[in-house]
Amino acid sequence: MFSEFNWLKLTAESPSMIILIMFSIVTFGVAIERAVYYWRRRGNPDDVARTVAKDLRNGDTREALAACSRTPHPIGSVLEVVVGSPADNHNEVDERIYVALSGQKLLLERNLNVLGTMAGTAPLVGLLGTVWGIMRAFHDMASVGSAAPTVVAAGIAEALVTTAVGLIVAVPALILYNHFMRRSSVMLTMAENHTRTIRAWMAAQGGTGTPESRKNTPARDASGRHAVAPEPLSVG
Questions:
Q1: Lowest-pLDDT range, 47-51, 67-71, 194-198, 213-217?
Q2: Which comes out higher in pLDDT, residue 229 or 134?
Q3: Among the residues of the chain, which ranges form H helices?
Q4: Do 89 and 67 touch, CB atoms closer than 8 A?
Q5: What is the pLDDT of residue 106?
Q6: Mean pLDDT across the stretch 103-122?
Q7: Nearest-angstrom CA–CA distance, 7 and 9
Q8: What percent of the chain has pLDDT over 90?
Q9: How does DSSP assign 109-145, residue by residue?
């Protein structure tokens, strides 16, 4: 069916088709860039948090910071805020965590708005091309002076192709947009949960100061027992 269309003619005579081709190139480029970026930021936040918690229990802040800097996962940058630049003011620590999470969110969601725009705009551009093509088909019918189906059938069929192309561009763009947004949300949630868990343990030691300063002074919880650094929970 599609082999019978004159694609070069359709592309040359339809501005909508040219725009859709540009949309497809942009969508493909952004998808590849984001896929590579997320692959580079991969990591196991459970293992990182477990390693940092172990180092903090041993009073080795330097090794804990090294573990944070080694991981490309967002948890490294967020957790480093708590471990590397502690403060006794809980509100200040919360603010630093929020700023770090916001920075990671901007990095993870960069260019995703382009995919969302392509998903929402491509079908409309395709529909515009269809309307434009149908108008041209009726104009040709008026010029010939005949309403026979053979006069307008080919023109209308070619006009509908732009709608199909618009959907072909929009559907993958929407799927990729939702996929990357989901990955970003999971990565940030994992980073925040582990960071706040370790921060709560550090606060239980008498503040959020550097662990070496309290290496030989185990803190006690509300029941009078020694506080122990938590084992981060795994999320399947």
A1: 213-217
A2: 134
A3: 7-13, 15-40, 45-57, 61-70, 74-84, 90-108, 112-144, 149-204
A4: no
A5: 95
A6: 94
A7: 5
A8: 39
A9: TTTHHHHHHHHHHHHHHHHHHHHHHHHHHHHHHHHHT
The residue type found at 112 is: L
- Torsional class of 22: left (φ above 0), alpha (ψ -120 to 50), beta (otherwise): alpha
Residue owning tokens 């949960």? 193
CA 97 from centre of chain: 20
CB-CB contact of 11 with 19 (8 Å): no
Distance of alpha carbon 64 from alpha carbon 67, whole angstroms:
5
pLDDT higher than threshold 60 for residue 227? no
Per-residue pLDDT tens for 74-107?
A: 999 999 888 876 656 677 888 888 999 999 999 9
- Specify whether the backbone of 206 is left (phi greater than 0), alpha (psi in -120 to 50) or beta: left
- Asked if 87 and 94 touch (Cβ cutoff 8 Å), the reply is no
Of 47, 43, 67, 44, the residue nearest 55 (C-alpha): 67
Collapsing DSSP to helix, strand or coil, 32 comes out as: helix
User: 18 CB contacts (<8 Å, ≥6 apart)?
Assistant: 11
Instruction: Give the C-alpha separation, 90 to 103, whole Å.
Output: 20
The C-alpha torsion from 19 through 184 and 105 to 194, rounded to 10°, is: 180
Closest alpha carbon to 78 in 219, 171, 194: 194
Distances (CA, A) of 66 to 34, 42, 214: 27, 17, 20
Residue reference for tokens 């919880």: 221
